[in-house]
Amino acid sequence: MAKWQSRLLLFLLLFLLSVKATQAREISCQDRYLTLVNPVRGRDLWADKSLVPLMNQYSLIKERGFSATWLLQYDSLEDQQLINEIKNFNSQQELGIFLEISEDLAHAARVTYPPLFDWASPRVIFLSGYEISERRQLIDKVFGEFKKEFGYYPQSVGAWWLDSYSLNYMKRKYDIQVALIVADQKTTDDYGVWGQWWGVSYYPTKTNILVPAREGNKEDVVIIQWAQRHPDLAYGEGPAFSNYSLQANDYTSLGKNTTFFEELINIYSDCTNPISQVTVGLETGIESAAFLDEYERQLNVLKSKAYLNLVTMTQFSDKFRQIYPDFPKKVKISGKTIWEMNIFYRKNEKLGDLVIYDPKAIWADYFTPDESEFLNRRLPELKNVGNWQEWLKLYLSSIPNFVIGPGSVLGLVRVSFLSDRFYLGLAFDAFRFVGLSFAKPFDLNFVNQDFFNLKYFLDPDLDRFLVYLTLALLVIYFGSKLTSKISKHANRN
Prior knowledge:
Strands 1, 2, 3, 4, 5, 7, 8 and 9 form an 8-stranded parallel beta sheet that branches. The protein has a 4-stranded antiparallel beta sheet with strand order 10-11-12-13, with no helix packed on it. It has helices at 2-26, 52-63, 74-77, 80-86, 103-108, 122-125, 132-150, 164-174, 239-242, 248-251, 258-268, 287-290, 292-303, 313-323, 388-397, 409-412, 462-492; strands at residues 32-40, 68-72, 93-98, 156-158, 178-182, 191-194, 222-226, 276-280, 309-310, 330-334, 338-342, 345-348, 353-356, 375-378, 413-418, 421-427, 432-440, 443-450. The chain is α/β, with parallel strands linked by helices. The protein folds into 2 domains: 27-389, Alpha-Beta Barrel (TIM Barrel), CATH 3.20.20; 409-492, no CATH class.
């Protein structure tokens, strides 16, 4: 009996060892990737408005033989001096688009830029704040400018938030391969993004960028994350928690240093998953001006880790597709707590987190503009999951009303009082106004020009306007009658 038990134990031990060896072969620690990503906004927002921040950042990267992805916002594409400097970068650098909307981009795309908002407000900075047709115009404009400068369309894009309609449009029209969005944060900077896989890359569904794809609803764009956060310390509300991230400006504000950064790198690049990826970068000219020394220390840490493979965003998306030609079904990240994530849910039992993934989950911004000043993209608060009535209501609300909506004739009418003159006419696009203006019955002018605030042309005093309009029409009518009589009288003579 003892001999039989010994043989059984030996068999079980050998079986377990063989399973472990198989798992070890399946998870190759060769597939540990690092992506340097540097968003480049227009220099109007830079702390140092010279080209020095850009050149300093590039020099640190070039000296170490690193590659990086530089995401260019529209205003930077219009800065010829800056673009000429970027064109001198070596061939290891990748260029992509940073999809933040500025007033200059909106005007260039002939889209109304909502007035009186801070440039970083989610109401104006994200594509989700605009009508569907406006998003297409904005995307086409910035992609067109990029191609004009560099001769090709980019494959990498980024923004702290990208709505799924815009993501689908860019994939369909420009065949983008990879997109960067912000890692989970509940309330930081008026942006609440919460519920995606914690710090790990994935394919999203076609209708929700935060939900991992499953069979039949995969959007073929790899999602990577900016400011990947500590799996234990970053769980909570506001910067006091979200600043436990890989960003130099974040963790130094909490009194942390490069040791903390290295701890996070080790967590996200361990051998738990078949492939791993970390995103490191600084916003050029903004954070890079004040945190360049810490950025240099970060790069030195990364250089010391021989197992890390330096890749651009697009190169990583290629590697990810090799490992996951369909989609990853489950992943895990752990510190002192464990994040278990699969296509059905993510959970962290110790922290009390559980997010259920419904493939039908869809945000309203897929159909309509989000005009709120707080970006609420927290999956546990999404109410219209699987509710086809809500989908239909949202879809119908996105179609211009035939009688009085913006796509109808009456919807094109604009009436206003501006600079002591009344205006009556039609809006032919977001800016072009064609019609009449008058200050008194005998002062009538034809108008055909652009007004950047045309969308907000509303009549502040309709009664007064109608009086002047009636008088003007009477003058035109009786004036034409009088002219006709004078002409007839002259012909008789």
